[in-house]
Amino acid sequence: MIMTVALLLSSCSQQACYDKTDPMMNAFLLESGTGVSVKAATIVVKGITATDTIELVNEKNVSSFAVTLDPGSDVSTFYIVIDGIADMAVINYTRHPHLVSAECGYTFVSELTGLKTTHNIIDTLIIENKSVNLNGERNLHLFY
Question: Please, what's the largest Cα pairwise distance for the chain?
Answer without folding.
Answer: 75
